Amino acid sequence: MLMRADMDALPVAEATGLPYASTATAKDAGGNDVPVMHACGHDVHVTSLLGAAQLLAESRDSWSGTVVALFQPAEELGDGAQAMVDDGLAHATGTPDAALAQHVLAFPSGRLGTRPGPFLSSADSMKITVYGRGAHGSMPQAAVDPVVLASMIVIRLQMIVSRELPPGEFAVVTVGSVRAGTKSNVIADHAVIELNIRDYSPASRETILTAIKRIVTAECQASGSPKEPEFELFGQFPVTDNDSGVTDRVAAAFSDYFGDRASTLPRQTASEDFSDVPNALGIPYTYWGVGGTDPEKYEQAEKSGRISQDIPVNHSAQFAPVIQPTLDTGTAALTVAALAWLGN
Protein backbone atom coordinates (compact mmCIF):
# COMPACT_ATOMS: atom_id res chain seq x y z
CA MET A 1 0.00 0.00 0.00
CA LEU A 2 1.36 3.41 -1.01
CA MET A 3 0.34 6.54 0.90
CA ARG A 4 1.49 9.90 -0.44
CA ALA A 5 1.77 13.44 0.98
CA ASP A 6 2.95 16.54 -0.89
CA MET A 7 5.26 18.88 0.99
CA ASP A 8 6.04 22.09 -0.91
CA ALA A 9 5.00 25.63 0.03
CA LEU A 10 3.95 28.66 -2.03
CA PRO A 11 5.42 32.14 -2.63
CA VAL A 12 2.75 33.81 -0.49
CA ALA A 13 3.26 36.10 2.52
CA GLU A 14 1.26 34.62 5.39
CA ALA A 15 -1.43 36.95 6.77
CA THR A 16 -3.11 34.65 9.30
CA GLY A 17 -1.78 36.46 12.37
CA LEU A 18 -1.09 33.12 14.06
CA PRO A 19 1.84 32.88 16.50
CA TYR A 20 3.35 30.14 14.34
CA ALA A 21 2.83 31.97 11.02
CA SER A 22 5.60 31.41 8.51
CA THR A 23 8.48 33.86 8.42
CA ALA A 24 10.48 31.79 5.94
CA THR A 25 11.74 33.09 2.62
CA ALA A 26 13.01 31.44 -0.56
CA LYS A 27 14.80 32.57 -3.68
CA ASP A 28 12.66 33.31 -6.73
CA ALA A 29 13.77 32.87 -10.35
CA GLY A 30 15.54 36.22 -10.19
CA GLY A 31 17.45 35.37 -7.03
CA ASN A 32 15.31 37.61 -4.82
CA ASP A 33 14.11 36.56 -1.36
CA VAL A 34 10.33 36.12 -1.31
CA PRO A 35 8.10 35.07 1.62
CA VAL A 36 6.71 31.54 1.54
CA MET A 37 3.98 29.72 3.49
CA HIS A 38 2.06 26.46 3.46
CA ALA A 39 -0.93 28.17 1.88
CA CYS A 40 -2.27 24.88 0.52
CA GLY A 41 -2.11 22.79 3.68
CA HIS A 42 0.78 20.56 2.67
CA ASP A 43 2.11 20.80 6.23
CA VAL A 44 -1.13 19.09 7.31
CA HIS A 45 -0.59 16.37 4.70
CA VAL A 46 2.98 15.65 5.83
CA THR A 47 2.07 15.61 9.53
CA SER A 48 -0.90 13.31 8.93
CA LEU A 49 1.18 10.83 6.93
CA LEU A 50 3.93 10.86 9.57
CA GLY A 51 1.29 10.17 12.21
CA ALA A 52 -0.29 7.35 10.22
CA ALA A 53 3.12 5.78 9.55
CA GLN A 54 3.92 5.92 13.27
CA LEU A 55 0.59 4.37 14.25
CA LEU A 56 1.04 1.56 11.75
CA ALA A 57 4.65 0.96 12.80
CA GLU A 58 3.60 0.70 16.45
CA SER A 59 0.82 -1.81 15.73
CA ARG A 60 2.49 -4.38 13.46
CA ASP A 61 0.56 -7.22 15.10
CA SER A 62 -2.73 -5.81 13.76
CA TRP A 63 -1.85 -5.80 10.07
CA SER A 64 0.31 -7.53 7.49
CA GLY A 65 1.90 -6.37 4.26
CA THR A 66 4.06 -3.42 3.23
CA VAL A 67 3.34 0.29 3.59
CA VAL A 68 5.19 2.89 1.53
CA ALA A 69 5.03 6.43 2.95
CA LEU A 70 5.83 8.70 0.02
CA PHE A 71 6.66 12.37 0.65
CA GLN A 72 6.57 14.17 -2.69
CA PRO A 73 8.09 17.56 -3.53
CA ALA A 74 7.08 20.03 -6.25
CA GLU A 75 3.38 19.27 -6.51
CA GLU A 76 2.72 22.98 -6.98
CA LEU A 77 4.92 22.93 -10.08
CA GLY A 78 3.05 19.98 -11.53
CA ASP A 79 6.17 17.89 -12.11
CA GLY A 80 7.19 16.53 -8.70
CA ALA A 81 5.41 13.19 -9.08
CA GLN A 82 6.76 12.63 -12.57
CA ALA A 83 10.26 13.57 -11.42
CA MET A 84 10.12 10.84 -8.76
CA VAL A 85 8.90 8.35 -11.37
CA ASP A 86 11.71 9.34 -13.73
CA ASP A 87 14.21 8.96 -10.89
CA GLY A 88 13.37 5.28 -10.43
CA LEU A 89 10.51 5.35 -7.92
CA ALA A 90 9.24 1.94 -9.07
CA HIS A 91 12.51 0.30 -7.99
CA ALA A 92 11.97 1.60 -4.45
CA THR A 93 8.24 0.87 -4.10
CA GLY A 94 7.65 -2.23 -6.18
CA THR A 95 4.01 -2.57 -7.22
CA PRO A 96 1.66 -1.71 -4.33
CA ASP A 97 -1.95 -2.88 -4.35
CA ALA A 98 -3.24 0.70 -4.46
CA ALA A 99 -2.25 4.32 -3.82
CA LEU A 100 -3.90 6.69 -1.35
CA ALA A 101 -3.70 10.46 -0.96
CA GLN A 102 -5.68 13.29 0.64
CA HIS A 103 -5.92 17.07 0.71
CA VAL A 104 -7.10 19.51 3.35
CA LEU A 105 -9.87 21.72 1.98
CA ALA A 106 -12.01 24.64 3.14
CA PHE A 107 -14.92 22.79 4.74
CA PRO A 108 -15.54 21.94 8.42
CA SER A 109 -12.68 20.30 10.27
CA GLY A 110 -13.46 16.80 11.51
CA ARG A 111 -15.28 15.92 8.30
CA LEU A 112 -13.97 14.16 5.21
CA GLY A 113 -15.21 12.65 1.98
CA THR A 114 -14.39 11.34 -1.46
CA ARG A 115 -16.15 10.24 -4.63
CA PRO A 116 -15.49 7.73 -7.40
CA GLY A 117 -14.50 8.89 -10.87
CA PRO A 118 -13.11 12.34 -11.70
CA PHE A 119 -12.51 14.15 -8.42
CA LEU A 120 -9.97 16.87 -9.31
CA SER A 121 -9.84 18.58 -12.69
CA SER A 122 -6.97 18.56 -15.11
CA ALA A 123 -5.14 21.86 -15.62
CA ASP A 124 -3.17 23.38 -18.46
CA SER A 125 -1.52 26.77 -18.46
CA MET A 126 -0.76 28.42 -21.78
CA LYS A 127 1.41 31.36 -22.79
CA ILE A 128 0.33 33.06 -26.01
CA THR A 129 2.46 35.68 -27.76
CA VAL A 130 0.77 37.79 -30.43
CA TYR A 131 2.62 40.24 -32.66
CA GLY A 132 1.80 43.73 -33.89
CA ARG A 133 3.74 46.62 -35.33
CA GLY A 134 5.08 49.24 -32.95
CA ALA A 135 4.59 52.97 -33.47
CA HIS A 136 4.21 56.30 -31.69
CA GLY A 137 1.00 56.61 -29.70
CA SER A 138 0.04 59.67 -31.77
CA MET A 139 0.22 57.69 -35.03
CA PRO A 140 -1.91 54.57 -34.54
CA GLN A 141 -2.46 54.31 -38.29
CA ALA A 142 1.19 53.25 -38.62
CA ALA A 143 0.79 50.44 -36.09
CA VAL A 144 -0.81 47.07 -35.62
CA ASP A 145 -1.79 47.52 -31.99
CA PRO A 146 -1.18 44.31 -29.99
CA VAL A 147 -3.10 45.70 -27.01
CA VAL A 148 -6.29 45.92 -29.04
CA LEU A 149 -5.55 42.53 -30.56
CA ALA A 150 -5.03 40.93 -27.15
CA SER A 151 -8.21 42.57 -25.84
CA MET A 152 -10.29 41.08 -28.65
CA ILE A 153 -8.78 37.65 -27.97
CA VAL A 154 -9.60 37.84 -24.26
CA ILE A 155 -13.25 38.66 -25.02
CA ARG A 156 -13.58 35.87 -27.57
CA LEU A 157 -12.02 33.30 -25.26
CA GLN A 158 -14.89 33.82 -22.81
CA MET A 159 -17.26 32.25 -25.34
CA ILE A 160 -15.55 28.86 -25.57
CA VAL A 161 -17.15 27.23 -22.52
CA SER A 162 -20.61 28.73 -23.08
CA ARG A 163 -20.79 28.13 -26.84
CA GLU A 164 -18.51 25.21 -27.71
CA LEU A 165 -19.09 22.74 -24.88
CA PRO A 166 -22.38 20.97 -24.08
CA PRO A 167 -24.44 22.50 -21.26
CA GLY A 168 -23.50 20.80 -18.00
CA GLU A 169 -20.00 19.92 -19.16
CA PHE A 170 -17.63 21.54 -16.66
CA ALA A 171 -14.71 23.65 -17.88
CA VAL A 172 -13.01 26.91 -16.97
CA VAL A 173 -10.89 29.19 -19.17
CA THR A 174 -9.28 31.94 -17.10
CA VAL A 175 -7.05 34.67 -18.50
CA GLY A 176 -4.72 35.45 -15.62
CA SER A 177 -2.24 37.81 -17.23
CA VAL A 178 -2.03 40.22 -20.19
CA ARG A 179 1.22 42.13 -20.71
CA ALA A 180 2.13 44.65 -23.42
CA GLY A 181 3.99 47.92 -23.78
CA THR A 182 6.24 50.02 -21.57
CA LYS A 183 4.92 53.60 -21.89
CA SER A 184 1.62 55.40 -22.40
CA ASN A 185 2.54 56.93 -25.75
CA VAL A 186 4.28 53.92 -27.26
CA ILE A 187 2.34 51.25 -29.17
CA ALA A 188 4.17 47.99 -28.51
CA ASP A 189 5.11 45.37 -31.06
CA HIS A 190 3.80 42.33 -29.15
CA ALA A 191 1.57 41.23 -26.27
CA VAL A 192 1.70 38.16 -24.02
CA ILE A 193 -1.44 36.45 -22.73
CA GLU A 194 -1.30 33.76 -20.07
CA LEU A 195 -4.33 31.62 -19.35
CA ASN A 196 -5.40 28.54 -17.44
CA ILE A 197 -7.74 25.74 -18.49
CA ARG A 198 -9.61 23.31 -16.21
CA ASP A 199 -11.78 20.36 -17.23
CA TYR A 200 -12.58 16.75 -16.39
CA SER A 201 -12.34 14.96 -19.74
CA PRO A 202 -9.79 14.59 -22.57
CA ALA A 203 -12.51 15.47 -25.09
CA SER A 204 -13.27 18.80 -23.41
CA ARG A 205 -9.58 19.58 -23.13
CA GLU A 206 -9.02 18.96 -26.83
CA THR A 207 -12.05 21.07 -27.77
CA ILE A 208 -10.81 23.98 -25.65
CA LEU A 209 -7.20 23.87 -26.86
CA THR A 210 -8.33 23.67 -30.48
CA ALA A 211 -10.73 26.59 -30.01
CA ILE A 212 -8.07 28.76 -28.34
CA LYS A 213 -5.64 28.30 -31.21
CA ARG A 214 -8.37 28.92 -33.79
CA ILE A 215 -9.60 32.11 -32.10
CA VAL A 216 -6.12 33.55 -31.54
CA THR A 217 -5.01 32.79 -35.09
CA ALA A 218 -8.18 34.30 -36.57
CA GLU A 219 -7.94 37.49 -34.48
CA CYS A 220 -4.31 37.91 -35.52
CA GLN A 221 -5.30 37.60 -39.17
CA ALA A 222 -8.18 40.03 -38.69
CA SER A 223 -5.81 42.59 -37.16
CA GLY A 224 -3.20 42.20 -39.89
CA SER A 225 -0.61 40.79 -37.51
CA PRO A 226 2.79 40.62 -39.26
CA LYS A 227 3.74 37.33 -37.61
CA GLU A 228 2.00 34.10 -36.60
CA PRO A 229 1.11 33.78 -32.89
CA GLU A 230 3.13 31.50 -30.63
CA PHE A 231 1.66 29.01 -28.15
CA GLU A 232 3.42 27.40 -25.20
CA LEU A 233 1.78 24.89 -22.84
CA PHE A 234 3.17 24.57 -19.30
CA GLY A 235 2.08 23.77 -15.75
CA GLN A 236 0.08 20.73 -16.84
CA PHE A 237 -1.75 18.55 -14.31
CA PRO A 238 -3.67 15.32 -15.09
CA VAL A 239 -7.25 14.57 -14.06
CA THR A 240 -7.44 12.85 -10.67
CA ASP A 241 -9.82 10.04 -11.62
CA ASN A 242 -10.58 7.87 -8.59
CA ASP A 243 -10.85 4.13 -9.17
CA SER A 244 -14.38 3.08 -8.25
CA GLY A 245 -13.38 -0.17 -6.53
CA VAL A 246 -10.68 1.41 -4.37
CA THR A 247 -12.87 4.40 -3.59
CA ASP A 248 -15.83 2.26 -2.55
CA ARG A 249 -13.60 0.22 -0.25
CA VAL A 250 -12.13 3.30 1.38
CA ALA A 251 -15.52 5.02 1.62
CA ALA A 252 -16.95 1.98 3.42
CA ALA A 253 -14.04 2.01 5.89
CA PHE A 254 -14.55 5.75 6.44
CA SER A 255 -18.25 5.25 7.05
CA ASP A 256 -17.55 2.51 9.63
CA TYR A 257 -14.96 4.59 11.49
CA PHE A 258 -16.14 8.19 11.12
CA GLY A 259 -19.91 7.64 10.86
CA ASP A 260 -21.81 10.67 9.58
CA ARG A 261 -18.60 12.75 9.50
CA ALA A 262 -17.75 10.92 6.26
CA SER A 263 -19.62 11.85 3.09
CA THR A 264 -19.43 12.08 -0.69
CA LEU A 265 -17.80 15.32 -1.78
CA PRO A 266 -18.59 17.20 -4.98
CA ARG A 267 -15.98 17.38 -7.70
CA GLN A 268 -13.21 19.87 -7.01
CA THR A 269 -11.82 22.31 -9.57
CA ALA A 270 -8.33 22.23 -8.07
CA SER A 271 -5.66 20.08 -9.73
CA GLU A 272 -2.98 17.65 -8.56
CA ASP A 273 -0.10 15.62 -10.00
CA PHE A 274 -0.52 12.71 -7.53
CA SER A 275 -2.08 10.44 -10.17
CA ASP A 276 1.18 10.45 -12.15
CA VAL A 277 2.58 8.07 -9.51
CA PRO A 278 -0.09 5.32 -9.54
CA ASN A 279 -0.53 5.69 -13.30
CA ALA A 280 3.19 5.06 -13.80
CA LEU A 281 3.11 2.11 -11.39
CA GLY A 282 0.01 0.70 -13.06
CA ILE A 283 -2.05 0.59 -9.86
CA PRO A 284 -5.49 1.96 -8.90
CA TYR A 285 -5.87 4.88 -6.53
CA THR A 286 -8.25 7.07 -4.61
CA TYR A 287 -7.92 10.63 -3.34
CA TRP A 288 -10.12 12.33 -0.77
CA GLY A 289 -10.66 15.64 0.99
CA VAL A 290 -10.30 16.46 4.69
CA GLY A 291 -11.93 19.52 6.22
CA GLY A 292 -9.69 22.17 7.79
CA THR A 293 -12.01 25.09 8.63
CA ASP A 294 -13.12 25.90 12.16
CA PRO A 295 -16.63 24.34 12.31
CA GLU A 296 -18.18 27.29 14.19
CA LYS A 297 -16.81 29.84 11.72
CA TYR A 298 -18.00 27.73 8.81
CA GLU A 299 -21.49 27.41 10.31
CA GLN A 300 -21.68 31.17 10.86
CA ALA A 301 -20.58 31.88 7.29
CA GLU A 302 -23.05 29.32 5.97
CA LYS A 303 -25.95 30.88 7.87
CA SER A 304 -25.08 34.35 6.58
CA GLY A 305 -24.57 33.12 3.02
CA ARG A 306 -20.98 34.35 3.05
CA ILE A 307 -18.92 31.16 2.75
CA SER A 308 -17.04 32.38 -0.32
CA GLN A 309 -16.33 35.75 1.33
CA ASP A 310 -15.54 34.69 4.91
CA ILE A 311 -13.83 31.30 4.58
CA PRO A 312 -10.23 31.50 3.29
CA VAL A 313 -9.51 28.85 0.67
CA ASN A 314 -6.34 27.12 -0.44
CA HIS A 315 -3.61 29.46 -1.75
CA SER A 316 -5.02 32.38 0.24
CA ALA A 317 -2.60 34.27 2.48
CA GLN A 318 -5.15 33.68 5.25
CA PHE A 319 -5.56 29.92 4.72
CA ALA A 320 -4.85 28.27 8.08
CA PRO A 321 -6.38 24.87 8.85
CA VAL A 322 -7.26 24.54 12.53
CA ILE A 323 -4.83 22.14 14.13
CA GLN A 324 -7.50 19.98 15.72
CA PRO A 325 -9.46 18.02 14.83
CA THR A 326 -7.84 18.41 11.38
CA LEU A 327 -4.66 16.49 12.22
CA ASP A 328 -6.49 13.72 14.06
CA THR A 329 -8.89 13.33 11.14
CA GLY A 330 -6.16 13.33 8.49
CA THR A 331 -4.02 10.85 10.44
CA ALA A 332 -6.96 8.55 11.14
CA ALA A 333 -8.15 8.71 7.54
CA LEU A 334 -4.85 7.44 6.14
CA THR A 335 -4.61 4.76 8.83
CA VAL A 336 -8.18 3.54 8.35
CA ALA A 337 -7.79 3.52 4.55
CA ALA A 338 -4.57 1.51 4.74
CA LEU A 339 -6.09 -0.99 7.17
CA ALA A 340 -8.96 -1.57 4.74
CA TRP A 341 -6.36 -3.59 2.79
CA LEU A 342 -3.80 -4.60 5.40
CA GLY A 343 -5.79 -5.18 8.59
CA ASN A 344 -5.88 -8.67 10.11
UniProtKB/TrEMBL annotation:
Residues 123-220 form the Peptidase M20 dimerisation domain. Its EC number is 3.5.1.32. One of its GO terms (molecular function) is N-acetyldiaminopimelate deacetylase activity. GO terms for biological process: diaminopimelate biosynthetic process. The keyword Nucleotidyltransferase does not apply. It is an enzyme of class 3 (hydrolase). InterPro entries: Amidohydrolase (IPR017439), Bact_exopeptidase_dim_dom (IPR036264), Peptidase_M20 (IPR002933), Peptidase_M20_dimer (IPR011650). Keywords: Hydrolase. The keyword Transmembrane helix does not apply. This is Hippurate hydrolase. The lineage of its organism: Bacteria, Bacillati, Actinomycetota, Actinomycetes, Micrococcales.
